[in-house]
Structures
1.
Amino acid sequence: MESAGGRRAKAGRRPPCPDGHAGRICLHGFLPTKAETRLTPGQEALLYLGAGIPASNRSRRPVSYLAAVLVDLLALNEMGPLYELAVNDIRYVEAIPEVIEAEDDPSQYRMDGVTLVRSVVTYPDTWAPSEGWKIAPHHLRAPINYYLSRIGRPWDHLAVASVLRDRHFLPTMRVLASTASRDVTTGDSVGPQVGG
């Protein structure tokens, strides 16, 4: 077996690293070249792991739908302490949660629906919900339930939301969270229930 530096090593045995390279990783069991033995740990990481993502000239976009989804799911599941941590972290990184609110009409399923409203969400710092989980203004404005949930098809509504990928329907998610912990054959509760 020949190393990257041209030195030979016995087959079946990993050759020892030269002095000054002890404890560092040798790729594929090869002895490092003379130049590689003089690398700093940072230079070694750059050599072995690559340079990473190149810098971009694009400006940072602080608006975040993901931040809104995360905090809404924590509120929906009544996870007060985690909610407070998430809100604190989102503020720390200066992300601005944004949601699209939809009325309960056919345009809620369209990308260009006329009743869609894009809004920036301000979440309170401390967990003090009303009606069990509603803590943000868009929670209070949301319909009690949407058409697909009213006709017993909340999973279809979730499927539609996953296709749209830019909005979520909190009342439907609440229905799913309260029914997801039931045995489908008997209807018995099998885990913690959300919102009783």
Note: Strands lie at 63-64, 96-102, 116-120.
2.
Amino acid sequence: MTETNRATLAVVVQFLQLATLIIGVAGIFLVVGRRDQQLQTNAVEIDDLRDIASDLVKASIESTTTNRDQDRALDELRSRIANLEINR
């Protein structure tokens, strides 16, 4: 090989190394960007789930309270009916 061919080959190899390095760095940025986006999406979904869980707990508490009130009212009605039947 002549000196010119060697110099040309060295330039081509350096160019290919540079292109490979740029592609590698771009790939790393893409992976990091995707992970970052996934983390943001997960954070939003976790906030939504937290709100849903909070609403469910509130609804459960309200339901339990309502059931207790209804049970008390039914017990009072039963005792009044029992008193009416006894006094008959």
Note: DSSP finds one helix and no strands in the chain.
